[in-house]
UniProtKB/TrEMBL annotation:
GO terms for molecular function: pentosyltransferase activity. Keywords: Glycoprotein, Glycosyltransferase, Transferase. Residues 355-437 form the Glycosyltransferase 61 catalytic domain. This is Glycosyltransferase 61 catalytic domain-containing protein. The lineage of its organism: Eukaryota, Viridiplantae, Streptophyta, Embryophyta, Tracheophyta. It is a single-pass type II membrane protein. It comes from the Eukaryota. Residues 1-42 are annotated as: Disordered. It comes from Panicum virgatum (Blackwell switchgrass).
């Protein structure tokens, strides 16, 4: 509370109050009698100026403490207001309207997941990158960007000017990481980051890094994809599921501008699948083991992406590609019409009738047979049942040297396929959408038949039918007994692991189908084909129009 100054008493003079306390009083005290005239006035004015200076300095400091980034100027009203979302907008740029516009800060390379680089979602930059994605149970995939050079003498890849703190990585570029026994046979690639700039005097002790000379410098923007054709290569199922389809998933986004670097290279593999590889790359394949030259790239992927068994998941591909797009690739590679035509690829049509509608021909059915195990013991009766059901059956006895173009030509013109569970069922990839796949499933192989072939066939647009072999129709009933655990409860054997299951149910079993029960499935297949032909659709459309 303000206090009024007391009257000065001559008998008891008091000391003059200090300026620090007198500025809160309404008026200064009276000058004591011993002061000279005029000295009290100067002190009074000085004490009044001090608080004004203090308030002025305080106001200036307060204004200067307001950060410029927290002000947004609007062009229409020239009004300055405090912005609340400072964290969302980091950088302000002046616009043509003399206002401040904000853009979101670009994420740094270190903050991006490795999958963003592998899938091409991170864009391209000059900064060096070395990362590995080891999150998938089927494969490890590493990504390199910068000055990448191969060193076949040590099965290594060198990345010069690597990011600071990078450490060497080791990868076996094959898609069965969960299977240790087979992965131990795959050649390992060592990725070595090399820090420090190039120094031509390094060899003379200059302290720099002398880079390996490039024997082959690949064009800028053309990356390398490194993978192995070892492991189960030689089995057609694994050649597609573990190799070609993962290669399609990983490399198709480059539209041919990619170089394949292959470990454990087989010339027969290139001869067998060259027609497909030509649709994925515009360059010659590099044999990593025997090509002793140093190949230089500015980008490299070591390992392959995989989505599952004979699956291309459009949700996981950068451009939404699916297994149907892979089938178009096969059709282009193995079809003479597609290879000689410059027109863009088109989806395969539904299975058409072989002859005009008034006199339809019998639909073509191919029966794939096996010779060593899972043999169809009553094949002649099966052929007869197919004829009675209205099909024109053809028996396919494939050999390793059977050309894939010949198999493709047979299946691309077929309406249905019958096969006992095994690698040959993989050829359903050549069939047109709307065709029928009828798989004969031996005892103990229900899960494998559905996962490896049933679901993928349905995703491709095929009509999938299963004939499940009954216990009495399996040769295991004669070997172990009809009521044995092996025949009646295969889960007991399967619980012991894949190899035990394979030894019993895949390697030692043959089948004899029940012709009456098998004939019911043939009738269902015939009905489906009638409903999917162009004639049936036209008849259905006419009937619907008549009802209107």
């Amino acid at each position: 509370m303000m206090q009024l100054p007391q009257q000065h008493k001559p008998s008891k003079p008091s000391a003059a109050p200090s300026c620090c306390s007198s500025w809160i009083r309404r008026s200064p005290p009276l000058s004591p009698p011993h002061k000279r005239p005029g000295s009290g006035g100067r002190s009074r004015y000085a004490c009044r100026l001090v608080p004004l200076l203090v308030l002025t300095v305080y106001s200036v400091v307060t204004v200067l403490r307001i950060p410029s980034s927290s002000l947004v100027v609007t062009a229409d009203s020239e009004r300055v207001e405090r912005r609340e979302d400072l964290e969302a907008l980091k950088t302000h740029l002046p616009s043509n309207q003399n206002s401040l516009e904000a853009r979101e800060e670009t994420r740094s390379v270190a903050s991006l997941p490795c999958s963003a680089f592998i899938n091409g979602e991170a864009g391209y930059g000059e900064e060096g990158v070395l990362c590995c994605d080891r999150s998938h149970y089927r494969s490890d995939v590493c990504y390199l960007r910068g000055d990448v050079r191969t060193d076949p003498s040590t099965s290594s890849v060198l990345l010069y000017n690597a990011p600071r703190g990078s450490s060497p990585e080791k990868v076996r570029p094959y898609t069965r990481k969960f299977e240790g026994s087979i992965m131990s046979t795959i050649d390992e690639v060592t990725i070595l980051p090399v820090a420090g700039p190039y120094n031509a005097s390094a060899s003379a002790g200059g302290g720099g890094t002398l880079r390996r000379r490039c024997d082959v410098r690949h064009p800028r923007g053309v990356p390398a994809v490194v993978f192995s054709t070892g492991g189960y290569t030689g089995n057609v199922y694994h050649e597609f599921s573990d190799g070609l389809i993962p290669l399609f998933i990983t490399a198709q986004r480059f539209a041919g501008e990619v170089v394949f670097v292959v470990l454990e290279y087989h010339y027969w593999w290139l001869g067998r699948y060259g027609a497909v590889l030509e649709r994925l790359t515009n360059y010659k394949v590099v044999d990593f083991r025997y090509d002793r030259r140093v190949h230089c790239f500015d980008e490299m992927i070591v390992g392959l992406r995989i989505h599952g068994e004979l699956v291309v998941d459009p949700k996981l591909t950068p451009n939404g590609k699916s297994i149907k797009d892979f089938q178009v690739l096969l059709h282009q590679g193995y079809s003479r019409a597609a290879s000689s035509s410059a027109s863009p690829p088109v989806p395969l049509p539904l299975a058409p009738p072989s002859r005009p509608c008034p006199r339809p021909a019998k639909p073509k059915l191919l029966i794939f047979i096996r010779k060593q195990n899972r043999v169809l013991l009553n094949l002649p009766h099966v052929v007869t049942a197919c004829r009675r059901a209205g099909f024109a059956p053809h028996v396919m006895n494939l050999r390793r040297q059977t050309p894939l173009p010949a198999i493709h030509a047979a299946l691309a013109s077929a309406d249905a396929m019958v096969a006992v569970h095994g690698a040959a069922v993989t050829h359903f990839l050549f069939m047109r959408p709307g065709s029928v796949l009828l798989q004969i499933v031996p005892v103990g192989l229900d899960w494998a038949a559905d996962a490896f072939y049933g679901k993928p066939a349905q995703q491709l647009g095929l009509e999938y039918l299963e004939y499940k072999v009954a216990p009495e129709e399996s040769s295991l009933a004669a070997e172990y007994g009809l009521n044995s655990t092996v025949v009646r409860d295969p889960s007991v054997i399967s619980s012991r692991g894949w190899w035990e299951m394979k030894k019993v149910y895949m390697d030692r079993q043959n089948v004899t189908v029940n012709i009456k029960r098998f004939g019911e499935l043939l009738k269902a297949a015939r009905t489906h084909l009638r409903n999917t032909t162009a004639c049936a659709k036209a008849a259905g459309a006419g009937a619907a129009a008549a009802l209107r």
